[in-house]
Amino acid sequence: MRIYGILSRWNDQRGFGFITPNDGSEEVFVHISAFPRQGLRPKVGDRLLFTLEVGADGKRRAGRAEYPAQRNSRRGPIRDSPGRVQHGPGRIRGFLALLLVMAVGYAISRYQILLPARSKSPVTAAAREPSTPDYQCDGRTRCQQMSSCEEALFFIRHCPDTKMDGDNDGIPCEDQWCW
């Protein structure tokens, strides 16, 4: 049978104490071995749930002592000795998730650095209309003879027999000037 009680006395150095049952009966001895190994350290005033056993000496003692569920959320991190804190699995998972996010962010930033930089983004041929036609058809027909994308656009639109738009998409000299 499980009994509720309150830890009324506790000697942390010797690892034992006494529980006062909620039913008003006399105090029951409890040893540290009755608590879960990875659980919280007992403190006077803790509410406990335990079984009643009879020891080798014939006296009543608490066995399988545990804390009701609300204690874990109320007390914070697990302390197995003064000054030493054990963090629960939720904190560890959160820390690992943070490390993963940071590693992915770092990898993305490194990948961006490794990508070749493009000084100009691709623009349609219509957006590259020459503002003032200062050019005239003078027999030039190849990209190597041009000095800018604007000049190549003028020649492909206004001059015959140009050889600057190999894929016929309206954008001349894509490898050299108009990329």
Topology (elements, then pairings):
Blueprint: E1 2-11, E2 16-21, E3 28-31, E4 47-54, E5 60-66, H1 70-75, E6 78-81, E7 84-86, H2 89-114, H3 149-158
Antiparallel strand pairs: 1-2, 1-4, 2-3, 4-5, 6-7
Q: Describe the global form.
A: rod-shaped
> Based on DSSP secondary structure assignment, what is the total number of beta strands?
7
**Assigned CATH class of the largest domain:** Mainly Beta
The CATH superfamily of the largest domain appears as: Nucleic acid-binding proteins
Main sheet makeup = 5 strands, antiparallel
Poorly predicted tracts of residues: 70-81
Please report which band the strand proportion falls in: under 5%, 5-15%, 15-25%, 25-35%, 35-45% or over 45%. Answer: 15-25%
Q: SSE order in H/E notation?
A: EEEEEHEEHH
Helical fraction: 10-25%
* Radius of gyration of CA atoms, rounded to a whole number: 41 Å
Descriptive overview:
By secondary structure, the chain is an alpha+beta fold. Helix content is 23%, strand content 23%. It contains three helices and seven strands; from the N terminus they run βββββαββαα. The chain has a five-stranded antiparallel β-sheet, with no helix packed on it. Strand 1 (2-11) and strand 2 form a beta hairpin.
Which descriptors apply to this entry?
179 residues; alpha+beta; OB fold (Dihydrolipoamide Acetyltransferase, E2P); 2 domains; five-stranded antiparallel beta sheet; two-stranded antiparallel ribbon; 3 helices; 7 strands; rod-shaped
